[in-house]
Amino acid sequence: MNSKFDFQEDYVINEINNRKSKLVLVQLPEGLKQEAIRLVKYFESKTKSEIIISGETCWGGCDLALDEAKNLSADLLVHYGHAPFMKKVDFPVIYIEMKDKTPIYSLLEKSKKDVVKFKSIGLVCSVQHIYQLEQAKNFFENLGKKVIIPNKKGYAYYDGHIVGCEYNSLKSISGDVDAFVVIGNKFHSLGAALSVRNQVYLLDIYNQEVVDMTKLRDKVIKQRFAAIEKVRNSNKIGIIVGIKPGQKFGSFKVIKNKFEDAGKEVVIITMTEITKDKLVNFHGISAFVELACPRIAIEDHEKYDQTLVTFREALVAIGKLKWEDLIEYGFL
C-alpha cells in the first residue's frame, strides 16, 4: 500500500454504496496507476460494483474522463489527485484530493536562509498540501514575517490553492508581498514564477529541498521568446483546438483571421492529446498554436520537433499583445 498519500478508500466505498453504483470508472494520475490492482480488489470486495480503471493519461482536475465513463455506461467517476476544477459537469463525479502525508517541518527550517531577507511572503500550495498551509503560515510569522494566503480565484478551489494553468490569486496579492513560497513541486512553482514578477521559492516535497525558481524562470522565458519568433516567421500555422472539456484556453477565431491577414496559411486542428506522432503528420507546418492546456507548449516543448505556443504567446506573434506585457503580467 502506498502510505505517502491518503487514498480515502473508506470514503469512496461509502459513496459507491450510498449511490448504489453498479459500474464505477476510477481515474488515477500517471504516477499512481500502480495502485490500480489494489484499489480494484479492495473496492470490489466492499461494494457490489464493478470497478474499471481508466488507462488514459490524467494531467489534472481539468482532465476528467467523462467520455470514457459515458461510453462505458458507468454510474460514477472517481477522480484521484485533484480538487474540483470544472464548474459544470453533466456526470456524477467525486474528487479525491489525496492528502500528501509527508511532514514539512524540515523544509520550513531549510527555507529560513532564503526568506530571511523578505518582510512579507505570499504562501500557496498544490491541493495535496492545503492542510499544511496554516503550519507554514505560523512558522513564517514566528520568524517575524507578514504572511498572506491569497483568496481563491479562477480555477483554485481553496484559499492558497494553485493550479497549473492560471495564477490569478497570486497576481491579486503580488503588489503586497516581497516573495512567494510554494509548497509542492516544480510544475506549480514554475507556473507561479512565470505569472508574477516576485521572487518565487519552492519547498520541494519530493526532493526535500528549497529552490529559488529565478534561474529556471529566466531559461524558460528565453525559450518562449524564441518560440514566438518562430511562429511570427512561419508561413504555415496549425491552430490546435483541445477538445477535452476542461482544457479550452482562447478562441481560434481571434487569431486565425490575424494570421491570414498577415499572409499566412492556417489550418484548424482538433486533438484530445497533443503528441509528436500526431504533429509530424502535418508535413510542412513547423509552428502550432495550442489552445488546450497552456502548460503543454511551455513544459513539453522539447518533446516536439515543431514549435508550439500558447494563446497569449500567439497574441504577441500577431501584434495584439506586446512581449513586455507577457513579462509584466505573466505567461499564464
How many beta-strand elements? 13
Per CATH, the class of the largest domain reads: Alpha Beta
How many separate helices? Answer: 14
* Regions with little confidence, pLDDT below 50 for 5+ residues: none
Strand order of the largest sheet: 6-5-7-8-9
Main sheet properties: 5 strands, mixed
Principal-axis shape? flat
Query: What is the fold-level CATH name, i.e. the topology of the largest domain?
Result: Rossmann fold
- Distance between the terminal alpha carbons, to the nearest Å? 37 Å
Q: What percentage of the residues does DSSP assign to strands (E)?
A: 15-25%
Structural class: alpha/beta
Can you tell me the number of structural domains?
Answer: 3
Question: What value does the Rg take, in angstroms?
Answer: 21 Å
CATH architecture of the largest domain: 3-Layer(aba) Sandwich
| pLDDT averaged residue by residue | 95
Q: Provide the CATH superfamily of the largest domain.
A: Diphthamide synthesis DPH1/DPH2 domain 3
Classify the helix fraction into a percent range: 25-40%
What is the N-to-C order of secondary-structure elements (H for helix, E for strand)?
HEHEHEEHHEHEHEHEEHEHEHEHEHH
Give a nutshell description of this structure.
This protein has 3 domains: about 10-95, Rossmann fold (3-Layer(aba) Sandwich); about 105-210, 3-Layer(aba) Sandwich (Rossmann fold), CATH 3.40.50; about 220-330, Diphthamide synthesis DPH1/DPH2 domain 3 (Rossmann fold). The protein contains 14 helices and 13 strands.
